[in-house]
Amino acid sequence: MSGLLLRRFVLQNITAVATHCPIPFIAVAARDTAASSDGKRSGLLSFFVSKTNRATDFALVTEAEMEWIKRKSEEENEDGRIVLACRPQLSFFRGVGGALLNGVVGCIVSPLIFLSMMLERMRCYQPLTAPFYGLFWAGLFLATSQYAAVQQLVLCTGYAWFNTPLYHLFNSHRITKGKEGIFAYQWNAVSCRFELPNGQLHQTHPLLEHFYKSDTIIRERGTRRLAKRDDDRKSAKYSGRAGGPAGGDNYYEILGLKPECTEKEIKAAYNRLVLKVHPDRNPSPDAAQQFDRVTKAYRVLNNPEKRRKYDVGGTKLVEDLGAKKREAVRALFGGDILCQLTGDTFFGSFSQRVIDGVDLTGEEVAVLRQRMYERCRDELLENYIDHYIASYPKGKPVATGETVKVSHSSWDNYMNMKIRKLTSTGLAKEVLHTIGQEYMRVIAYFNSELNQQGENGAAVYNSKVTIALQRLSTFYGTTLPHRLGQRQRKIKFLTTIRQDTFKNTEAMIDLAWYTSVEELETTARYVSFSVLYDPKLSEPERMLRREALHAVAQLFIRYGQAYKGANKATMNQLMDSLRDYQQQQQKEKNE
């Protein structure tokens, strides 16, 4: 590892740990250091970057080197290795594992950092300061790793054993009796902490607005990362013909061009080669294959968007097999329209590599999942809840203690037509039933705050002790048995997987369902909680949303059905619906 790469390694690991520091101003300064692309320099960044732009300074990197690091990270998608466990989780065992990892890595790597930096400084003709320079940065890395170990252990333990049960029992949209307030928090994987929910239409998390690129760029980064690793693995085993930028055929070499060639040069090279390799002019037995390769290379490089994708991720990104697999999974779980409400189900490491064909970091997965939650929230609000509220009779008083019974004929007619379309594809009925049941569990959680024995429909709120006892009873009586049952069925099925399982269509449908249903429920729980507990809502607005969500949940349960496993009868019906869906999708693309 060269001197600059090692110093980048130290810089990125230190800033990654500081990003998740519980002290706010340190976390903000670290994010500015890691993600800002403007010319402004934060206090933490000034500590690492040389003010005189000389390599002999005591700082970690110079201005020019910092710009190179940013360019590699943002333009070329070449990230440094972050080996320390930085992101707190809602798991005590992961916290212990992360703490042990950080402690061991710090003790092993810091002596290597000392030796490397000392030798690099000696090569810069600074023999007197070289030992102090290496000792300082190696010591800082060691101290950071040990701090990261303590931070992981303390935060994960606190989140898992203190914050999670505390917020679950005492979350409330009213802090004190007679005064409106908010004391309701949910876990946010982007910031790695509990935050107030955001249930406002078209609002995004602040970190997503300032520090992260679009979903397309994130997936392109992951595709290139995986393709590069696959290419490196192949190159390590044998020496053969060079591949493309990230694996596959090298289209530039096929056309005899350089990567910086112009569009005019691409057309000229294609016209020249096609005359040589065309089967009508070339008697070679592999002429047709050569002609296909030249034509394919020309179609990619002559298209600006395809060429950009090829330069980023090679042939894998151009063909985008991950998008085709994602479309197939969405079709299985109800199609694109239903997935706008329920979200995607492929955010595990296995799904990222096998279905998506990408290799994403934990932070990138959290960003994609958060954006998915926000899209699902907007879909639920805009096309279900707000539509229900709009059909509410004008001037009708809002009952806060019990379910409001009024006529919503226009909404019923609208939803009946909508649900019939939703339930015609794949496992849509099972998906609707699943998220409808999860909505009902969130509503029951919300209703534990209300004493429905008030006079004239007026809301009477339970005491905090009563709320906690009711939620504890509901959790151990209903929620926990349900989740354990889901987990047990998943594990039971996974233990029965054999080599021939992947040749059995019915078994593959069961595998897809049991490995995805928890993700569907998590999305529904997060979205419905945000909708009900948004701190900006007034009391009447909150109760109207509760009423609307209850109506939506009942409708989904009525039109849906519980998953009972795949069999021949259900498989025939499922395949017919998927075939019709694919034909409809193809028809829409052609139009």
Explain what the structure shows.
With 591 residues, the protein is mainly α. Helix 8 (215-237) packs across helix 12 (304-319), helix 14 (335-342) packs across helix 16 (362-390) and helix 21 (517-533) runs antiparallel to helix 22 (539-559). The chain is globular, with a radius of gyration of 28 Å. Helices cover 66% and strands 2% of the residues. The protein has helices at residues 3-19, 24-35, 43-48, 63-74, 92-123, 130-170, 206-211, 215-237, 251-255, 263-277, 287-301, 304-319, 321-332, 335-342, 349-356, 362-390, 409-422, 428-447, 464-494, 505-514, 517-533, 539-559, 568-590, and strands spanning 186-188, 193-195, 450-451, 460-461. A hairpin with an 8-residue loop joins strand 3 (450-451) and strand 4. It folds into 3 domains: 3-169, no CATH class; 206-212 and 331-583, no CATH class; 215-319, DnaJ domain (Helix Hairpins). The strands form 2 sheets. A two-stranded antiparallel ribbon has the order 1-2. A two-stranded antiparallel ribbon has the order 3-4. The two termini are 54 Å apart. The chain has 23 helices and 4 strands.
Give the secondary structure arrangement, pairings included.
Layout: H1 3-19, H2 24-35, H3 43-48, H4 63-74, H5 92-123, H6 130-170, E1 186-188, E2 193-195, H7 206-211, H8 215-237, H9 251-255, H10 263-277, H11 287-301, H12 304-319, H13 321-332, H14 335-342, H15 349-356, H16 362-390, H17 409-422, H18 428-447, E3 450-451, E4 460-461, H19 464-494, H20 505-514, H21 517-533, H22 539-559, H23 568-590
Antiparallel strand pairs: 1-2, 3-4
Number of helices in the DSSP assignment: 23
User: Structural class of the helix and strand makeup?
Assistant: mainly alpha
Major sheet details: 2 strands, antiparallel
Radius of gyration based on Cα positions: 28 Å
The domain tally reads: 3
Widest sheet: strand ordering? 1-2
Kindly state the percentage of residues in helix.
Answer: 55-70%
Order of helices and strands: HHHHHHEEHHHHHHHHHHHHEEHHHHH
- Low-confidence region ranges: 36-40, 175-179, 237-243, 399-404
Task: Give the overall average pLDDT.
Answer: 81
Task: Label the overall shape.
Answer: globular
Number of strands: 4
- Give the distance, in angstroms, between the N- and C-terminal Cα atoms: 54 Å
DSSP strand (E) fraction? under 5%
